[in-house]
Amino acid sequence: LHQWTPGVGNISADPGFVDVPSGDFTLGAGSPCINAGDPLSPLDPDGTVADIGAVPSLVSFVRGDINADGAFDISDAVSTLFVLFVAGTSTPVCMDAGDTNDDGGLDVSDAVYALAALFVIGSPPIPAPHVACGTDPTPDGLECAEYPCP
What we know:
Blueprint: E1 17-19, E2 24-27, H1 74-85, H2 95-98, H3 108-119
Antiparallel strand pairs: 1-2
Helix pairs in contact: 1-3
């Protein structure tokens, strides 16, 4: 039995595992261990600072649904523009969901890509994960702290 020792980098909070009784020790959304590891160690698969623990957290989300209302529609393109250009707009809970073109950044091209996908026949599809929740197959530096997946 190890005793917790106070110090830099140590935490005493509940790590927020997904389902301990079932043996799922993946870090759940909102875990204090997410992005709290040694900043000098290799990045997690999602491109963020290492998590504390053996299993990196990969939050599921739906690409394009930046406002996390469960639908991909024109309000997502508008929300992206608000995040980018309207002072005082709160940061979305999942920036990765707003990266509609999956280029690793959030910019005006994501709003344009979303509008084209919605209204221009023959436009390229929204990259995965789209339609259903999933994890980002492309590592980048965008944060996704939580997302209301079923």
